[in-house]
């Protein structure tokens, strides 16, 4: 554990070990995969920042059951991540620039949080993204350009928005289905309250 937290802070090493023993189950494999599963809603932001800063080669990161409300800044800098899972935490908002530096990201799981909005252009840099899960949140707003530009997110295979608070929806599902440049994508919108489709069937830039 000490080699992973090479900042020289014995207090941080001790705190991480205590959290992982008392509240969370932690598994770190070859500095490439980090899994933290918690039974108590503790804010692990300082510890995750330390882990991310000292393990920049990580390609898989899973955090579940914590009290984290915003994605830790150092996690946003993990450029080699291929899989990021933050399910069943306490996320309330997404930093519009957080995922820009993750060009290798293929799967993003943000299910079972308290996210209310998906900001415009938030996934523009994720050219390899294949699966995006935002189900069981409180999403009531999706930026017009998040999914509608057919030249972006061309490899997406699944967009899961099941169980949110959407009442209206822009026309991006139809745009994606009609585009010849986008691979087949499953879109899950059940258990919302959508009664209005807005926008035009074109590609916003």
Structure overview:
The chain has 3 helices and 12 strands; from the N terminus they run αββαββββββββαββ. It is of the alpha/beta class and 205 residues long. The strands form 3 sheets. It has an 8-stranded mixed β-sheet with strand order 1-2-3-4-5-7-9-11. Strands 6-8 form a two-stranded parallel ribbon.
Give the spatial strand order of the biggest sheet.
1-2-3-4-5-7-9-11
| Biggest sheet record | 8 strands, mixed
Total DSSP E strands: 12
Level of helix content?
10-25%
Low-confidence stretches: 1-12
| N-to-C order of helices and strands | HEEHEEEEEEEEHEE
Tally of helical runs = 3
Provide the descriptors you would attach to this structure in a database record.
205 residues; alpha/beta; eight-stranded mixed beta sheet; disordered N terminus
TL;DR of this structure?
With 205 residues, the chain is α/β, with parallel strands linked by helices. The chain has helices at 10-22, 45-53, 172-178, and strands at residues 24-29, 33-38, 60-64, 83-85, 107-109, 117-118, 131-133, 141-142, 158-160, 168-170, 186-188, 196-198.
What topology does this entry show?
Elements: H1 10-22, E1 24-29, E2 33-38, H2 45-53, E3 60-64, E4 83-85, E5 107-109, E6 117-118, E7 131-133, E8 141-142, E9 158-160, E10 168-170, H3 172-178, E11 186-188, E12 196-198
Parallel strand pairs: 2-3, 3-4, 4-5, 5-7, 6-8, 7-9, 9-11, 10-12
Antiparallel strand pairs: 1-2
